[in-house]
Design a protein that fits this description.
With about 130 residues, the chain is α+β, with helices and mostly antiparallel strands. The chain is built from 3 helices and 8 strands, in the order βαβββαβαβββ. A hairpin with a 2-residue loop joins β3 and β4. The chain is globular. The structure holds zinc ion.
Amino acid sequence: MKILKIDHLGIAVSSIDEKKNFWTDALGLSLEGKETVEAQKVTTAFLPVGESEVELLESTSKDGPVAKYIEKKGEGIQHVAFRVENIEEALAELKEKGIALIDKEPRMGAGGAKIAFLHPKATSGVLVELCER
Ligand code: ZN
């Protein structure tokens, strides 16, 4: 498996419109449009930072994973995403190493990326996303 870089940090917020100002006005990052991924009940907004990005996540529904995260832990960093060269290969390798996976097969994420989540019990509580673009 080859990890290329930290692709993005996924940050759960109650509202992208209400919370984006810190990132755009105070830090001066630019928001590259919003996209809703209905399958994951989430609206995302990406803000590039050098080689990586900040991904703001807003739930579209009270029972979505981001809403549940905020309910349990409050707003904050919800996941770390690593960009891999080949996501199918990476998942097969991790499965072979006995790492618990949430997604055994990649699914479609925002921006047409192929993504898969590893189980936090395998990663010291950090929700890790693999993505290939
Ligand atoms: Zn993500």
